[in-house]
Amino acid sequence: MRQWSALFMKDFKLTRVVFFMGLVMNGLVALLTLTLEGAANDSLLLFVPFAIAAGIHVAYVPGMVLISLKSEGSYMSVWLHNPQAAFKLLLSKMVNGLIMLVVSLAWLYALARLVITPRLSLIEPSWTDAWSVGWFIFPHIIWISAGLSVLVMFLWALHQYLKLRIGRWSWAVIAGILILSGWIYALLTTSKLYGFVTEWGGMTYKFGVILPDTLQTYTGGYVFDFIMIVGLFILTAWLVDNKVEG
Amino acid sequence: MIQMTNVTKEYAKNTAIKDISLTVPTGRIIGIVGGNGSGKSTLLKLIAGLAQPTSGSVTVNGEKANRRTGQFAAYSSESGIYYPIFTVREAIRFQASQFPDFNLAKADEIMKLMQLDPHMKIKALSKGNRGRLQIMLTLAREAPYILLDEPLSGLDPMVRDAIVKGMISYVDLSTQTLIMTSHEVTEIETLIDGFIALKDGSLHRMADVEELHEVEGLRIADWMKKTYD
């Protein structure tokens, strides 16, 4: 555990500047909200900058993981020359990104409360619905962000492997794989088979005036995504252990 | 024991190592010599498990060399790079946390010998001091194999002297084997027991230094001048 926690602290240090910059940017979003409030009459506008900022957080963990991996690229032999299994090296970066994401979202939530609560009378009809949407969206942002971070790690590892073999064409292959996998995923998730496998454990959500349509999710869908994420993570760890060179 | 069997390593546009087979005996200091681009660093990375052969096999202590070979082999890269976010002291602590064979007391001794300031940020270190740091972090491990890639390259004579002293004082040849690459053949000749000479990625010769001196009456540099042209 001491081995991994030291790795975790090192990974935190590699990305902490970006993390703190993100927190400052959340503060700027709060300032923007106050400016918008003064400029417009629509009270729902209060939610817009916060909603956009929360949405952008989908890219948070993949972004942090990529920054961390890019830093490691400069010390590749140091990073790879480590007795710990690759899955531990990668997990450290992912957990770092996830913790930073949760802190950043919590900070954004706190700022939103701070800005909106004194003006509650302006948005009272939307208040409860907005927070319900928030509680639905935040875990999904974390979920999607975690999944995308594994994809980023996989593509990075593949690029590291390919660049020593095919040189600059590696980027073209990575772009091709990204487009192809997106297309296959879209094809798969719209197929009857996917529906048959995943459409169980249904849950419906209603959010009143904010989102008039009923949302439906399936436990089967989450299980499917989880299996895909774990599978891709294992493949990435194998690539780093056996194919990436320092 | 390190064993290489018909090892070839190809990159996108060139072949770095061509069909090399050799066995590195334990308890010795071995120098890997050769011109620029002869494959010295690649050979060391293959032993460290940081590069994989395109064909053939590399084994360290009977196990296929891969990234986890780091358990048996302490490797120091040519570039002298280390995480700039750390101070010298933090780098020692980090290295100690990762490698169970890292000897903290030994690291402290080498740090003093190399005159490194433990509170100094690595990003603020000069090239020479980064070289010393790398050597310190590598020699403080009590791994069976110590692999040093160009430890003397681009360093001033004082730093070279400190590094050579470190290699002599802190490598225990009863339990450790030191393999290093170097352009500075003259400088390492007095240190090494044997040498592996590479030419254009192929094994040119593997021999004892003493044998070369006694049988052919030549120093390595002279022998290289004679046979490489």
Account of the protein in words:
The complex is a heterodimer of chains A (246) and B (229). Chain A has one domain. The relative contact order of chain A is 0.12. In chain A, helix 1 packs across helix 3, helix 1 (2-39) packs parallel to helix 5 (86-116) and helix 5 runs antiparallel to helix 6 (120-166). Chain A has nine helices and two strands. In chain A, strands 1-2 form a two-stranded antiparallel sheet. Chain A has 246 residues and is mostly helical. Chain B has 229 residues and is of the alpha/beta class. Chain B has one domain (2-228): Rossmann fold, CATH 3.40.50. Chain B has helices at 40-48, 88-98, 104-113, 127-139, 157-170, 185-189, 209-216, 220-228, and strands at residues 2-10, 15-24, 29-34, 55-60, 63-64, 73-76, 145-149, 177-181, 194-199, 202-208. The longest helix of chain B has 14 residues, at 157-170. The two termini of chain B are 33 Å apart. The model of chain B has no long low-confidence stretch (mean pLDDT 92). Chain A binds chain B through residues 2-3, 5-7, 10, 13-14, 74-75, 77-78, 80-86, 163-167, 240-246, and chain B through 11-13, 45, 48, 50-52, 66-68, 70-71, 75, 77, 79, 81-83, 85-86, 93-94, 97-100.
How is this structure best summarized?
Chain A: The chain crosses the membrane at residues 12-32, 44-69, 90-112, 132-157, 169-188, 221-240. The complex is a heterodimer of chains A (246) and B (229). By secondary structure, chain A is mainly α.
Identify the most extensive interface between protein chains. Answer: A-B, 31 and 27 residues
Oligomer: heterodimer
Strand content of chain A: 5-15%
Radius of gyration of chain B over alpha carbons?
A: 17 Å
What is the helix/strand order of chain B? EEEHEEEHHHEHEHEEHH
Biggest sheet character of chain A = 2 strands, antiparallel
By secondary-structure content and strand pairing, the structural class of chain B works out as alpha/beta
User: How are the strands of the largest sheet of chain A arranged?
Assistant: 1-2
Report the uncertain regions of chain B: none
Query: How would you sum up the global shape of chain B?
Result: globular
The fraction of residues in strands of chain B falls at 25-35%
Beta-strand segment tally of chain A = 2
Keywords (chain A): Membrane, Transmembrane, Transmembrane helix
Transmembrane segments (chain A): 12-32, 44-69, 90-112, 132-157, 169-188, 221-240
